[in-house]
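User: Just a sanity check before I run the rest of the batch. Below are the structure tokens for the first item. I only need the designed sequence back.
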């Protein structure tokens, strides 16, 4: 089960639950893969209107890798994501939001 306080999101791929999490390493890999120079540029890319399905897939792959998955984007091309593209897009958006939502101190 995903822990939102750790920035985790769950996505069901080929019938198996996967934890997605944007670690610093996963964010660095995402920056490099999308050709963005800074973390601010990366976030602006996703907040803008030019976000593509390819960007969403890259975000999901980064989250999977941050969650310990060792696959690549190519592995997801024929994968069945439970709920389809809408659920995948929602998971990607939630992943990004959770990664940059400050946790309240107690």
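Assistant: Here's the designed sequence for the first item:
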């Amino acid at each position: 089960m995903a822990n939102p306080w750790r920035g985790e999101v769950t996505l069901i791929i080929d019938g198996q639950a996967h934890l997605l999490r944007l670690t610093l390493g996963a964010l660095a890999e995402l920056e490099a893969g999308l050709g963005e120079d800074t973390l601010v540029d990366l976030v602006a890319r996703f907040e803008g209107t030019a976000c593509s399905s390819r960007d969403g897939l890259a975000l999901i792959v980064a989250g999977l890798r941050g969650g310990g998955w060792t696959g690549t984007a190519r592995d997801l091309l024929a994968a069945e994501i439970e709920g389809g593209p809408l659920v995948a897009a929602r998971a990607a958006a939630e992943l990004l939001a959770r990664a940059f939502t400050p946790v309240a101190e107690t």
